[in-house]
Queue: 4 jobs
Job 1
Amino acid sequence: MQKQKVIVILGQTATGKSDFAVKVAKKYNGEIISADSRQVYKGLDIGTGKISKKEMRGIPHYLIDVVSLKKKFAVTEYQKKAISAIAEILSRGKTPVICGGTGFYIDAITKGVVFPTVPPNLKLRKILEKKSTEELFKILKKLDTRRAKNIDSKNKVRLVRAIEIATAIGKVPEIKETKSPFKFIKIGLYLPEDKLKKKIEKRVKKMFQMGLLKEIKRLKKAGVSDKRLKEFGFEYFNPTPEKVIKETIKYAKRQMTWFKRDKEIKWFEPIESKAILAFLNESSDKLQVKLK
RNA sequence: GCGUCGGUGGUAGAGUGGUCAAUUACAACAGACUGUAAAUCUGUCGCCUUCGGGCUACGAAGGUUCGAAUCCUUCCCGACGCA
């Protein structure tokens, strides 16, 4: 059977993914699934650069505004929801277009990573978080030598989670990837460094103009704690334009470190939109040919 | 003009005779990534290197000393105070 085609549009922040995805969706009878770890939350709009209703130009967008700020969202939930969204879109004879900059989320779908199903154990976490990384590493070593070997022994967050899994089910399962029933066509949008920086500056300034500070005030009023605000990213904790620009540039670099590993991504500058559309046509043709 | 304090690596800023190529932070560069992922974490960060080490460096030039970023002299520059 032919694998059904899913278009993926990824790239660093401020490269114009959202707009481009709408364009592609228009052209290919598509619907968009966002791959952004923060845009899933209701109420984080300006700081996350969420696309507006108007900018959506009538294209349905999935996985935006799907959880309350009080709930914690995680990759696994994203994975589940995104995969069912893909199925649903395809069942209506439309093309799913995944668009976003959260590499981890994109891989969760396109690589079919199987995550351990152990839920967070807040009590245990509280205890573990008080310990030093050395202590945590020792504990993990005792519980699961295999995972201890490949874990980052200085990364507390990872150590805590690994111990959490190991205490629940004995050992951390080896990482597994399952073959996806879909064919993903990955398009990466990139900009030369100086252009990217300029776009980031522009974008951040616009954020402040649009009322980022007001948005934060509103969140605080709604009972969001400082700690939680920090979790929502640097835009949400005592931001100044300079600080946000600086942090965004660093973040963009981290994104690229992630994307670089994926050799399936075909990279384009956003201005090459014709070339991209041609590439998409070609990719879908190839699929058709394989069919015969 | 006199006096005081200061001039340290891309920046800020420690160090005040040896363990100093120089704490640390930031920036920069590279990287990791098993339910927090705009998160979390790692490495490199004067030049050269056969990775043992070699060379040049703490405003400039001299000097003291076995040894100086650190002490002395002069000069240059900056801040402040007095004229």
Note: The longest strand of chain A covers residues 4-11.
Job 2
Amino acid sequence: MPRQVDHDDRRRRIAQAVCELIGRDGLEAATLREVAAQAEVSLGAVQRCFRTKEEMLVFAQEHVNRRVTERARARIAESPEPGSVATMLEQTLTAMLAVDDEGLLDARVWIAFTAQSAVVPALAAVQRGHYAGLAELLVVLLRAGQENGQIRPDVEIESETDALITLADGLTVQVLLGRHTPESALAVLQRRTTGLRT
Amino acid sequence: MPRQVDHDDRRRRIAQAVCELIGRDGLEAATLREVAAQAEVSLGAVQRCFRTKEEMLVFAQEHVNRRVTERARARIAESPEPGSVATMLEQTLTAMLAVDDEGLLDARVWIAFTAQSAVVPALAAVQRGHYAGLAELLVVLLRAGQENGQIRPDVEIESETDALITLADGLTVQVLLGRHTPESALAVLQRRTTGLRT
DNA sequence: CACGTTCCGATACGAGCGCATCGGTAGGCT
DNA sequence: AGCCTACCGATGCGCTCGTATCGGAACGTG
């Protein structure tokens, strides 16, 4: 067999290159040639990793979604009180916001894919799956918080979960448009989550 | 002078065609040729109305923004209690949501332009201008409501305005992704606005 | 009434796109 | 050690894009 390369690693690197291009110049900047250049591989390599451009974009979409989930996990682990439900809740939602440069890039990628999801049902299904995971996590956190008394018992979990997700998305849009700074958006989010505590 | 056509009317018709194409298949579907076909004019006519494609897209962006404002005005006029501040507030915010087919189309156009605004500062400025107008309107409504006792006096107007806009945007995203129906989004919005009443 | 000006719609062009194809090359098997 | 296979990176091909250009039709004017 000829020289072997790690296919999964290459796919991840390409997906990362796609995200960087979309985050900098939008979806239309993610041409196969530009992606190859950004990932420092040849055009042929990109074509062998992904049968078609659409397949590449879907993988990149799942890639950025995984990054958000991963960032939530990391923020929880690094937080001063990893065991506190309120902390976990806040850190999870913060991971969805554009609070730092990395998050800002992901937010731009997120809205690009979300806009595309509005007209391509297959992409919308991918996004809904991501949101389903986030919603489930929030439900678990809220329920655990109510059981150990950290979350007010009168909070209606399902509707509160939806409201928190809606708030995070709305704030992300506001930050991207420059109507909120990352700091002010974070403050709004924290005011909301602290309102849930006992 | 040769045969004269109404330039402004033609520009509006072209902008409408751009919105229909973007609402159906996304920003990339708005090529000059497709726009010309949708507007039932020649490619040359589109080029003479707009010096460049970007100029056309900016005009279309302002066009859909004007439609939202116009819809808010129409909803207020048609509402059962045009004089009630609470009604005006609710109808204004409803105009920002994708509550009917026309609104759904506009919402898809909105998110397409918003995504582009995240990477093109010039477009972001246009969007910010639109939001500034909406925010000013909401501030006026809330203040008037407080003065005549229809809105709770403890509502902090500036932050509430931002919160309402953020909520409307977040709900729009959720509807576009299929995580909210137009009806459920409207219900969330109404619950929020009725909470502001005395 | 014919001319000339002015604007319209069709065509032409270079560039860049996604995708398909094809020698070259680097290792595993006997 | 040498062959042979499997994969890599470069090149080619239609196609469509945005933009520039050009002949022709339509009206005010002398």
Note: Chain B has nine helices and no strands.
Job 3
Amino acid sequence: MPKKEGGSGRLAASARRAQLVDVGRSVFAERGYEATSVEEIAERAGISKPIVYEHFGGKEGLYAVIVDREVEHIVGRIVEAISSGSPRERLEGAALAFLTYVKERPGGFAVLLRDAPASKRSGEMPALMYDLADRVGAIFTEQFRKAGYDAKAAPIYAHALVGMVAFVGQWWTESRKAPPVESVASHIAALAWMGLRHLPRRPALLVTEGRRT
Amino acid sequence: MPKKEGGSGRLAASARRAQLVDVGRSVFAERGYEATSVEEIAERAGISKPIVYEHFGGKEGLYAVIVDREVEHIVGRIVEAISSGSPRERLEGAALAFLTYVKERPGGFAVLLRDAPASKRSGEMPALMYDLADRVGAIFTEQFRKAGYDAKAAPIYAHALVGMVAFVGQWWTESRKAPPVESVASHIAALAWMGLRHLPRRPALLVTEGRRT
DNA sequence: GTAGTAACCTACTGTTGCGTAACTTACGAC
DNA sequence: GTCGTAAGTTACGCAACAGTAGGTTACTAC
């Protein structure tokens, strides 16, 4: 009598945990939190539902573990990338690190961008990107003050940059004609760098609502 | 005997439809598509469930109407904003139009950024932002070619700009200390404009993975 | 007043999906 | 071999929710 699943029979607890994290990540990535059922995860892993509960306590537990690991991954990479070098090198390093993460773990990235369970949502923005932007904002605030720019505007730029990279990253993973990481990173970094470098001290609109100057 | 609801008793069909679109938008905005129940919408509107089915045929029907109206709103505003003026004026106009929309209809914006029902999802990116970026990409491709830049990179910049504005918009609606629209728009437009204006013809990274030059 | 109709309701069906209780199977130690 | 334990199963309780059938209320026209 043949085995029911493709190769993995009975697994040790740690191996099963690892497998469930992998499977869970991809299911959450493609369905979103709410639309994911524990049964589907169990089925794709070739086991039955209670095993998931045994290892992670439930849907939220598994989700929390998955998110936590992804955050570790991406934050680690970025922190390392910005740990040394000139400002421009750090900017490029961060962009490259981010996009490399996106490339290597598209599922994880998708989970981070998607909806969190209703119980953990603060506003609507996925917490990670928000935190990331806040950190960048802190760095910017300091630099802006030093350079004589309006420090209150720093968060705007921080969120703009994070949004830029995140959005491009998402488009890039879904795009068929995908240019190499270095290329994408260099374009983004150039845009951001030049933008910041040539920023006027006190930006103002040329046009005002309705009439032009 | 007091009326059960705060003021709206029996409504004409068209008024009820309008009310349900409003209520539905805010519920979808705060819960997301999957986590929203038709019952909650009905309850908040002060009516019972079958009325919703009578007017919109179901959850997806109502959702579709809401999304369609929001798309009309935002696209209309942006198209108008970029219809005339110098390139820089158009850029600023687009940023201002986008942010004004976000300010005036935060719920609608939230719906556009959130998950669509599983039945209509292509990839993972909400369709509107994707389309918007594609349109910007078309404009950029042409301009890049004229100016002697790498036209293949145009979509990267298009997505970067859209992501920038969308992300800042989201942060802005949730942020307590909210600067005025014009201020935010001017900062974003300045960043984007200066970035594009001073872009090298052939951007390259200073750093390469692991070693520095 | 009473007839007609548009707006609305109560009460149900069927399904899905989380989480759990209680039982079974493989496998190594001795 | 038989005993203990880790790994896994089937079968269920229970709640939420999409969608529907059929009845009820209030308003308008005359």
Note: Strands of chain B lie at 207-208, 211-212.
Job 4
Amino acid sequence: MNLKELAQHLNLSQTTVSRALNGYPEVSEQTRRRVDEVARRVGYQPNPHAMRLATGRSHAIGHVLPSDKMLLIDPHFSDFIAGAGDVYSENGFDVMLHAGGSEAEESVYRRYAQSGAVDGVVIMGPRLNDWRIDLLTELALPFIVHGRVGQRDEGYAWLDIDNRGAFRAATKLLTDLGHRRIGLVNAMEIFTFAAHRRQGYEDALIAAGLKLDPAIVTNDPMTEENGYRQAKRLLTMGERPTALVFSSMLFISGAIRAAHELGLTIGRDVSLIAHDDGLPFLNAEGLVPTLTTVRSSIRAAGSRVAELLIGMINDTESAQPHELWKVDLIVRDSTGPAPRL
Amino acid sequence: MNLKELAQHLNLSQTTVSRALNGYPEVSEQTRRRVDEVARRVGYQPNPHAMRLATGRSHAIGHVLPSDKMLLIDPHFSDFIAGAGDVYSENGFDVMLHAGGSEAEESVYRRYAQSGAVDGVVIMGPRLNDWRIDLLTELALPFIVHGRVGQRDEGYAWLDIDNRGAFRAATKLLTDLGHRRIGLVNAMEIFTFAAHRRQGYEDALIAAGLKLDPAIVTNDPMTEENGYRQAKRLLTMGERPTALVFSSMLFISGAIRAAHELGLTIGRDVSLIAHDDGLPFLNAEGLVPTLTTVRSSIRAAGSRVAELLIGMINDTESAQPHELWKVDLIVRDSTGPAPRL
DNA sequence: GATTTTTCCCAAAGCGCTTTGATGAAATGT
DNA sequence: ACATTTCATCAAAGCGCTTTGGGAAAAATC
């Protein structure tokens, strides 16, 4: 059943039916109700392709996964998209996902912009000085960044969590507990969030009058194995750290394993804090001892990012949104006073 | 730049240009080359919406994440889609993702079928007697299942791994090593794969002349915490299992933690085997001791599923593909002879 | 009561492609 | 040399919607 048939069925013109359905004012309440009712009864669904062609709007949001094969497929993505997906479908938007393939990432964006395949895109996992920002600005394709690019906070829409503040708070908790030597197991610092976290960590060390030691700061892809390897290395070095801060829960299982293996009791011999994105398969509260974390739901961020982007698309004149979310420090049992070594 | 302009530019009709671009035979080699060349030079990109409207084909594949909020967002999804995404984009297909929202999952499929928004869908995480199979069959929307529905293997396209064989082999390894009491930490058995895995486990126990004990088989969502909880429970019960088989690597970190806590040495006091989907953040080889696994790359499965579905879409007459992948048993250090208790 | 405005609806054009049916020109057959 | 087939191209219709530009009837204004 298409619009034409529906219109015939109703003894109305396509114009009127279309307008009734789309809530335009040039149609009486009475006929609108009649149209709605009949449309629902016969199960009329407008053809999305025709709509898109006619309006030039796709009602779709693009998500392009970096094709960089060196980087791990990120389990955070599922959660982010779950949050965003809710909002998209409430608002009648589809999500168009591009993952890998031989086509260069850049040309995917160019194609999107040029063909109108999507009305906007979200940039995930921004890098320091990310090229995608300049490209999308040039292409005039609406976009929002989950995170920031580091160099500047103006000129593009973003939603970020206060990584720096979070890691400052986490590290300060440790210095307040008397720890003087604190390691940071960080993600790769090509990512802005990792750079910010290191800054926060350094802020707190400096505030506590401690000196920075690059030897106890590491940068690796976020895997269980790297968590283990680095924790083990750090905890066995001469003048070992008494506390470790982790950039991801993905590191944590490995780190706990390392501590156990070394016979160190967590919360007493060594304190651990991790950033927790709220991944559902890895619960900080379920660990023994329960894990002190800085926590911010990546899923919630996904929802909000989607909301903001849709807002930008619907109202082109609106100001570029910038949202910095504060992060909760949740003190549990994995942190305690610094031990005597 | 649209087709009309391009045609004018070339002094040809739209028809000819369209045909040249799409490789139809009714156009001379010479003009085809000229058209291709100019199209490339001016950066012509056909408008996808117009193409879709005209052809009625969307060149898009739908993935609908179950909206069942009780189930965890699955980190396996990222990996599966990474594999599939490669193939999709090589073949010029987009992926349309639907995640959550208030719209009932069923009506999403109905809408897809009715509006032609996608040319086919892939069903992930099939349940026993999954309703989606009947629905999609009725809707005549091409689809392929990653997994099976349990009751029947005919009447729908699928690619599955041999979960039953894998868990039979894993469990047999343990019985061969002299283990007489083997626990299974399984996923929720609403999922077919979990049911199959239990069957394989039972096959091997029966073959070894052991009796089945429901008390040492568990079903939980796949999380670190559940791995810990169940491993701890099983390993502290009277007449404890000397070996545990896990349905997912997500359980494993928790299980290792439990074993450590109980002072049990893995590979000696207790043997562990897990199914490994090849999630990049959780590497069986990186564990200490290295973990014996049954392994099958979910990413590779994603690629192949995509290939098969595209094949079905391009050739409607082709036979329904059924692929059962065998799973590798990789013996490492977490399994050893049964201990004397 | 005549004029203006508002209300409600319509016909037709247009979005950018594909595809059908037709048409000359060139090649082939007899 | 003429009929027939093949080749290469084109004009125009169509996909299913939105939107522009009217226009008749009803309501409001003077």
Note: The longest strand of chain A covers residues 60-65.
